[in-house]
Design goal:
By secondary structure, the protein is α/β, with parallel strands linked by helices. The chain has helices at residues 36-39, 67-81, 93-103, 128-135, 141-152, 159-169, and strands spanning 3-5, 12-15, 18-25, 45-50, 86-91, 109-115.
């Protein structure tokens, strides 16, 4: 039976199945839906997707919205879902969160898959101008489309995925 949890923790979806649980963590501005096309190809596998605090179905949860808080939330979601044997799969910010979770050396973590992720700590060369631009990346549908087309991907995406990115990013 598939389950969706809504608790004081971030909302997550858990589809029990075979093997270690594949725990999918989305990018900044994404949602659990980010992984729909991947999860759809994993019939029979145990998968868990999370809407991080501050995004999508978890947008109403209070801060802080730090990477450390998201890592703590991820560990709490795993405990609540009863997941004890898992692989973290993180894209961009989700990869940073996965690194912070792994740094705590939790029992049950078998490995990580990082997709387009930098180090968990920001690079020292990030300028105030770049930080300012990032802080406005999701202010409007147009700015989201610009980030999507010029930062998040180097390839053409199907229109439903392009629209989903704008919708998810504006639901924070």
């Amino acid at each position: 039976m598939d389950t969706t949890q809504q608790t004081p923790l971030p909302t997550y979806d858990h589809r029990p199945g075979a093997g270690p649980t594949l725990v999918f963590l989305h990018y900044w501005g994404g949602s659990a839906r980010t992984w729909d096309l991947v999860v759809g190809r994993l019939a029979g596998r145990d998968v868990l997707t999370v809407d991080f605090r501050g995004w999508s179905r978890s947008s109403a949860l209070p801060g802080p919205y730090t990477l450390g808080q998201l890592a703590d939330d991820t560990l709490a979601v795993l405990a609540e879902a009863g997941v004890t044997d898992y692989v973290l799969v993180g894209h961009s910010m989700g990869g940073k969160v996965a690194q912070l979770v792994a740094a705590t050396r939790p029992a049950g973590l078998r490995g990580m898959v990082l997709v387009g992720s930098g180090p968990a700590k920001p690079a020292a060369q990030i300028t105030p101008e770049y930080q300012e631009a990032l802080s406005h990346a999701y202010d409007s549908a147009e700015s989201v489309a610009g980030a999507r087309d010029h930062v998040l991907t180097a390839t053409e995406l199907p229109e439903p995925v392009r629209a989903q990115i704008v919708t998810d990013s504006r639901t924070a």
